Amino acid sequence: MFLAGPVTDEQTRGLYGKPSVSDTFDCSHPIPPGSKQNIEYLQNRGVTHFKVLLSWAHLLPTGFPNQPQQAVVTCYKTLLKQLLEVGLQPLVVLHGSTAPDTLRSR
Fold first, then answer.
1. In which band, very low, low, confident or very high, does the pLDDT at 23 lie, cut at 50, 70 and 90?
2. Cα 89 to the chain's mean position, in Å?
3. Where is this region: Disordered (predicted)?
C-alpha cells in the first residue's frame, strides 16, 4: 500500500475515533508526542511508504542555504527517523511552489 502525505483531518479522524493528528506531519510546528504510535498504526495497516513534503519556505525562510530554520530541520529529521524505525520508506519531495521569494528572485 502507498500513502501520500501529509495526512488530512478526514484521513486521521477515523484512526482512533478522536480528533485529528494531522499536525504530526507538519514541520511548521514540532512533532507532538504520540506521533510514533500514529506512524506504527500506518505500518500495521500495511502501509509501506510515506510521502514527506518538504517546504522550502519552512526550511529556508531567508532563501539562503546556509541559514536553515534549525527547528524545522530537526523536525524533518525526527519524522524521517520515526518512519524508518517502524519500517516505512519515506519518499521525500521538495515543494518548488513553496520557495521563499528571495530564492525565487535569484
1. very low
2. 13
3. 1-21
